[in-house]
Design goal:
β7 and β8 form a beta hairpin. Helices cover about 40% and strands about 15% of the residues. α2 runs antiparallel to α8 and α3 runs antiparallel to α4. The strands form two sheets. Strands 1, 2, 4, 6, 7, 8 and 9 form a seven-stranded mixed beta sheet that branches.
Length: about 230
């Protein structure tokens, strides 16, 4: 079952609204499902710890969406004034810098790696043989020893394609957005890369992430942004 991290934006909870936050989220998602999802998880699932809390924010604040068993300083979402987006971006940037530096040091003296687009062009972007060929290169094999967590083709292709500053900027750009965004007016956007509909340079994906970051950063602090694990 495929899992999609969707960020759902909701207006501030009006006093006259009797719906719970959980109900408001599900009603918003039902309006855009259109066959996209079989189910979705809000306080369970893969993304319940996506957002760090602002310093001083209380884990039991009712304006937060949290897993009961999750760490007290992380949540699936809530009002923007309680979410530390800067810390999230800084963490992703620091992790990218550490990975790039470790990879650069470990591959010193090795021949340059061929870019992903060469394998995609000859074998097809959806070809498992293309991925195997790309990762068989000596510089890519090094990642087995220095990369923690799951390996992602897009990140590996960017590591080969971009310089250090570009690689860090890419990670910072991708820290906050999920795979899809539901805007306040119901507009539904999805990362073209998640749909396998982007070019090798990630032009569409970059535009998507830039838009999501700008959109969220421009919202008032009482707007709710919640990450939902959408499955199909």
């Amino acid at each position: 079952m495929a899992s999609r991290h969707a960020l759902v934006c909701l207006p501030p909870h009006a006093a006259e609204t009797s719906y719970t936050l959980d109900t408001r989220l599900r009603r918003a998602l039902n309006k855009v499902r259109g066959g996209h999802f079989d189910s979705y998880e809000i306080t369970t699932g893969r993304y319940t710890e996506h957002f760090p809390l602002e310093p001083g924010a209380q884990a039991d604040d009712p304006r937060l969406v949290r897993s009961a068993s999750g760490p007290a300083d992380r949540c699936a979402g809530g009002v923007l004034s309680l979410l530390d987006l800067a810390a999230l971006r800084d963490r992703h940037a620091a992790e990218a810098a550490a990975l790039h530096d470790a990879w650069t040091q470990a591959t010193d003296g090795m021949p340059p790696a061929e870019p992903w687009e060469r394998f995609e062009r000859h074998l097809g972007g959806d070809s498992f043989q293309a991925l195997l060929g790309f990762r068989a290169q000596p510089r890519l094999k090094v990642l087995d020893a220095i990369k923690t967590g799951p390996r992602q083709r897009g990140e590996e292709a960017a590591l080969v394609r971009l310089d250090r500053a570009g690689f860090i900027a890419r990670a910072r750009r991708r820290a906050v957005p999920g795979n899809s965004l539901r805007e306040l007016d119901g507009t539904w956007l999805t990362d073209p890369a998640w749909l396998n509909a982007d070019d090798p340079l990630e032009s569409g994906s970059t535009a998507y992430h830039d838009h999501v970051n700008a959109y969220i950063d421009a919202r008032d602090g009482d707007v709710l942004v919640v990450g939902v694990d959408c499955r199909r």
